Amino acid sequence: MVNVRIEKECGCFKRSGMPSIKAFENKDEALTEAQAWAEEMNETFCKKHNFSVIEEGDDLVLKVAMN
Questions:
Q1: Which of 8, 34, 43, 44 is deepest in the core (most CB within 10 A)?
Q2: How remote is the C-alpha of 35 from its chain's centroid?
């Protein structure tokens, strides 16, 4: 089981209705979903933050950085 989770929930994320953590059966599926989430957030959120995917142990984390 691989979890995809958000590092820190900004206001845009909270308003989006996206889940802050989601479990997947395998790493490939989790990575595909995490990358899609990061791309969507980078394109549709307010642009104050930049989102990227990193691996932390068995989990994938959507990192949040200031633009």
A1: 34
A2: 7
Q: Specify whether the backbone of 5 is left (phi greater than 0), alpha (psi in -120 to 50) or beta.
A: beta
What average pLDDT does this structure show over 62-67?
Answer: 93
- The domain containing residue 35 runs over which residues? 2-66
Neighbours of 38 (CB within 10 A): 20
- Per the structure, the count of domains in the chain is 1
pTM over 0.70? The answer is yes
Beta carbons of 4 and 30 less than 8 angstroms apart:
yes
